[in-house]
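Contributing new records

If you add data, match the layout below exactly. Sequence lines come first and carry their own label; structure lines follow with theirs. Keep one chain per record. Anything else will be rejected by the validation script.
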Amino acid sequence: MRAAIVGPDGARMRWVEIAGEEPARVYVHGLGATSAAYFVPVATRPALAGHRSLFVDLFGFGLSDRPAAFGYTLEDHAAALAATLDAAGVRGADVVAHSMGGAVAIVLAHRRPDLVGRLVLVEANLDPNPPSTAGSSGITRYAESDFLAGGYAETLDRVGPVWAATMRLADPLGLHRTAVGLVAGTRPTMRHLLERLPMPRTFVQGGQSEPVDDAVGLSAAGVRVVTVPGAGHNVMLDAPEEFAAAVAAAVNPA
């Protein structure tokens, strides 16, 4: 496990790293998740193995610290992630990011394109105010004080054992504030930022999920949209072999 001091009061962002060839591959988790649990099994498959791989936990989640003075907006997370990649000596990485982490990765690529050589978004949030069925909306139905008082425990019961296994490692305050930041989104929106990015971009979705809105518009902007049959929101867990193949096709130059 590695760490970099990139937050307030000496807060450390931590990651698990596998040595290998450059460019590095940076994996970023979704809301209430951790990167190693979601990505190590696919990143070590033959289609993706061999590259330097960093499995980064954002502030408030998994192995990383939980600074109360941190803002937990998408922009705050992207800035801390950029500082972490700077500390790790990463440039031009293949960034593979899931759900909320995908929204953070879009902001990262917009602000620091030197850090991102290729961007692979996995069921990423592209628009503010997601549907009421989304996990972030369920969390933000609680006021912050109510979430800390009992809403966190209710959420763990509601989301089921797989998500709860990593969500119980999250800081309740950071989880709630990150969900609020995700629902608020960015201005311009993550979708508009994504459409204007210069690097190769791929959006991976599960065939059992609702299709991404305006796939035609994304394709027109140069974003390759790939559907993995038989998978839901957690594409890498539901169809690991197919997911690894989709990511390999996105990050390996023709």
